[in-house]
Structures are given as structure tokens and as C-alpha cells.
């Protein structure tokens, strides 16, 4: 049986996203370098495929959720790539976070072959991927957006058409640069309060109702024990890794250089997450940057 949707990249985000498409009634074949991830999708209703690439070539929609630009370019482009092998009319949706120029390059190559391709990166983390409440920021044509929307709605709650090709990635890069900066600022403020004898819960609650309020303070507090559901209270496990934040800040700084923009805070944030990653924290949630700011004992 051939699937409606071929979903490539069943990692922390891709697997629950693909599972939500299955729950919505689509037949979905999953593909990943890690066989155990494909098995997990099959266990939860995904289609079993003997030949992964053949399944991709038969699908009506191909969705990718891969780590970075190089993975996306290599899987779509070239003689063995998706674009050279899919059937006419296949809709292509890349949900990975990659460089806007890389998204435009792959979409232009798709258009040259007559395919509609959208960049549709997401916000909302693994919790949002599981709950089907992701925010999608989509770049591409109006028609393409209309075709992709029914699928995106099964994985997300807020679906925005940001503009032409690459716009989804531009919004994502801007958002994550701000998020990375805010997490460091929130951590500094809480550390300062603690150093003055404040209870971080009380401090966070008051700041959440004051002008310093922001998502990292209210929903994803970096101080262990303040918020039961936040990664900080679970040993900084799961969530959004330091190395992924580092990647996104790298995209922001690269893009700023290419467009002549000034991002002094974004550059500083990138350097701080880089130092944090090199200290061995790359796999922890990015809110663990709070630990970097601990007072010397
Ligand atoms: P992940 O590393 O958990 O998953 C990526 C998956 O892609 C892995 O399972 C890997 O085996 C697979 N893969 C790599 N190359 C492949 C190939 N050639 N063929 C098939 N599979 C391949 O990463 P993730 O956390 O799921 O993130 C995916 C993307 O979503 C990234 O671009 C990330 O920046 C973005 N993102 C992540 C989060 C988050 O909270 N984790 C939030 C928003 C956006």
C-alpha cells in the first residue's frame, strides 16, 4: 500500500508530528536513518514500507523534518534526491529550521521541475509537536499555502503565511534569536534575585505580571523548581537542546552578515551558548544556560 504522506526525519519533533497525521486519518510512511524511529511510527499506525525511497516517490505529499540546511539540501537535490525522483504534482513541505537562503535555493530547484515547495518551520517544542499545537510559519505561494494548510492544521494550532519562499525561515530565525536572548536575560534576572535572598518562584510570579514578562519566564522558567513542567525541573532533559539553539543563533548571525544587519545581542547570545555547549551542555535543554550564571561557590 502506498502512503498519502512520506515523512522524512522522525526525531524528537518529526515522530510526534507524523503520529498526529496518522491520528488525523492519513496514511503516513516514515523514514529515518534510525530504524527504531521508523518502527515507532509503524507501531502507532504508520504504513510499513519495504523500500523507503520508493515510498517517497509514490506519496502525494513529502514532509521533511531534518536537523539543518545541509541535510535538507542533500535529501532534495542531486540525481538521487527527492526532486529527481518524485511523481508530478507531489507537494513538498520542509518543516526543518534552516537558512532562509537554503530554503529559497531548494524551493527554486523544486519550482524549476514544476513542484510546489514550502518552508514551514515550527515553534512550540516537543510538547507542542506531541499535543499538535505547533505554530507554523510558512513561506511560499498563496496556492501552495492553501494546499499545505490541511496537513499543517493536523500538527499545529496557529498556521501563518509569512510571505514568499524563505519567509517562514526568516520569521523563525528572528524569533529564535529573540528567544535565545530572552532566556539569558531571564536567567540573569533570576540569579540576581536569588543572590539577594529572593524566592525565585515569588520573583518569577511578580516579574510575570510586570514589564519584564516574557515566554521564558512564564512558560519555560530556567530555574529548577519554579515550574514543574519546565525542562529545568527535570534536570534540563528533553526540550530544545543547547546545540539546536546554537545552530539557530548561527543562522541569525550568518544572515545578519549577509544582509548587513546589526545583531550585537544575538552575537553575544550565540557566543554564550557556544561556551556553554563546549563545557559539555550541548545536549541539555537551552534553559540550562541558567547554570552558567551560577555564583562561584
Ligand atoms: P532530531 O535530531 O531529534 O531529529 C532529526 C532526525 O532526522 C533524526 O532522527 C535523524 O536520524 C534524521 N535524519 C537526519 N538525516 C536524515 C536523512 N538523510 N534521512 C532520514 N532521516 C534523517 O531533531 P529535532 O529536535 O526533531 O529537530 C528537527 C528540526 O526541527 C531541526 O531543524 C530543529 O532546529 C527544528 N526544531 C526543533 C525543535 C525542538 O524543540 N526540538 C523546535 C522547533 C524546531
TrEMBL record:
Limits of the 6-phosphogluconate dehydrogenase NADP-binding domain: 4-163
Pathways per UniProt: Amino-acid degradation; L-valine degradation
Catalytic activities: 3-hydroxy-2-methylpropanoate + NAD(+) = 2-methyl-3-oxopropanoate + NADH + H(+)
EC number annotated for this UniProt entry: 1.1.1.31
Superkingdom of the organism of origin: Bacteria
Keyword terms of this UniProt record: Branched-chain amino acid catabolism, NAD, Oxidoreductase
Residue ranges of domain 3-hydroxyisobutyrate dehydrogenase-like NAD-binding in the record: 166-292
Protein name: 3-hydroxyisobutyrate dehydrogenase
Native source species: Herbaspirillum rhizosphaerae
Amino acid at each position: 500500500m502506498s502512503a498519502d504522506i512520506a515523512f522524512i526525519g522522525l526525531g524528537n519533533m518529526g515522530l510526534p508530528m507524523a503520529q498526529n497525521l496518522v491520528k488525523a486519518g492519513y496514511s503516513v510512511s516514515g523514514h529515518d536513518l534510525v530504524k527504531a524511529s521508523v518502527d515507532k511510527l509503524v507501531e502507532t499506525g504508520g504504513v510499513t514500507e519495504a523500500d523507503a525511497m520508493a515510498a517517497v516517490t509514490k506519496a502525494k505529499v513529502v514532509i521533511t523534518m531534518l536537523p539543518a540546511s545541509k541535510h535538507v539540501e542533500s535529501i532534495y537535490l542531486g540525481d538521487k534526491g527527492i526532486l529527481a525522483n518524485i511523481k508530478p504534482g507531489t507537494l513538498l513541505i520542509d518543516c526543518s529550521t534552516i537558512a532562509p537562503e537554503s530554503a529559497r535555493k531548494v524551493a527554486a530547484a523544486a519550482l524549476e521541475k514544476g513542484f510546489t515547495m514550502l518552508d514551514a518551520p515550527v515553534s512550540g517544542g516537543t510538547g507542542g509537536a506531541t499535543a499538535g499545537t505547533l505554530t507554523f510559519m510558512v513561506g511560499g505561494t498563496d496556492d501552495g499555502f492553501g494546499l499545505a494548510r490541511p496537513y499543517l492544521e493536523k500538527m499545529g494550532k496557529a498556521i501563518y503565511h509569512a510571505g514568499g519562499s524563505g519567509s517562514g525561515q526568516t520569521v523563525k530565525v528572528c524569533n529564535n534569536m529573540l528567544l535565545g536572548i530572552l532566556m539569558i536575560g531571564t536567567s540573569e534576572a533570576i540569579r540576581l534575585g536569588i543572590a539577594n535572598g529572593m524566592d525565585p518562584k515569588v520573583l518569577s510570579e511578580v516579574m510575570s505580571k510586570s514589564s519584564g514578562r516574557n515566554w521564558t519566564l512564564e512558560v519555560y522558567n530556567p530555574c529548577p523548581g519554579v515550574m514543574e513542567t519546565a525542562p529545568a525541573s527535570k534536570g534540563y532533559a528533553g526540550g530544545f537542546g543547547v546545540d539546536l539553539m546554537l545552530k539557530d543563533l548561527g543562522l541569525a548571525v550568518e544572515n545578519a552578515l549577509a544582509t548587513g544587519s546589526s545583531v550585537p545581542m544575538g552575537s553575544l547570545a550565540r557566543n554564550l551558548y557556544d561556551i556553554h555547549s563546549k563545557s559539555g551542555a550541548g545536549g541539555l535543554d537551552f534553559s540550562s544556560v541558567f547554570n552558567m550564571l551560577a555564583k562561584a561557590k
